[in-house]
Write a structure and sequence with these properties.
CATH superfamily: CheA-289, Domain 4
Helix content: 10-25%
Distance between the termini: 64 Å
Number of domains: 1
CATH architecture: Beta Barrel
Strand order of the largest sheet: 8-1-2-10-9
Strand content: 35-45%
Radius of gyration: 17 Å
Largest sheet: 5 strands, mixed
Shape: globular
């Protein structure tokens, strides 16, 4: 008897934040932008760098390094903004995530993705959905929605909608 095995291969955009490499499924990535002038928003959370204009719409930009409890991003020629879709309940918002550099688009077989390590209750890694080894390095697969609290997501959505409605 022959057993049919289906292998599912997906594409992931990989990028560096600090010394680590992370990946996001390409169906969540809308665009990769060169660094541009970011307008600060008064009284916004520390991780919120500000907003930019993306094709006539306001795009909130977050500093992923701050969300990962690292030093703020130091801008270099490689720093860029990865524009992503975040699905919240039945709605989708777009955010720009500052990353130190984009590495590649990688084809990854879902069988290669291992579950994230369990390090204990004090270490919160629910935003890491898996880990895959690529060229002797580990790539951590992210679920950006889980990086934010419900309140933070609501605030991002509200700020994006409020400014866009004023246009």
């Amino acid at each position: 008897m022959e057993i049919e095995t289906k292998i599912k291969i997906d594409s992931y955009l990989t990028f560096k934040i600090g010394d680590e490499e992370f990946g996001a499924h390409v169906n969540k990535v809308l665009n990769i932008l060169e660094l541009q002038n970011i307008t600060k928003v008064p009284k916004s959370p520390e991780y919120m760098k500000g907003i930019i204009n993306l094709r006539g719409k306001v795009l909130p930009v977050i500093d992923t390094r701050i969300k990962f409890n690292m030093n703020p991003t130091e801008f270099t020629d490689d720093t860029c903004i990865v524009v992503m879709d975040l699905e919240i309940e039945d709605d989708v918002i777009h955010i720009g995530a500052l990353v130190d550099s984009v590495v590649a688009v990688r084809e990854i077989d879902e069988n290669q993705i291992n579950p994230p390590p369990s390090i204990g209750k004090s270490y919160k890694s629910e935003f890491i959905t898996g880990i895959v080894k690529v060229n002797e390095r580990f790539v951590q697969i992210l679920d950006l929605v889980k990086l934010f609290t419900g309140t933070e997501l609501s605030e991002l959505k509200k700020s994006q909608n409020k400014v866009n409605e004023e246009d």
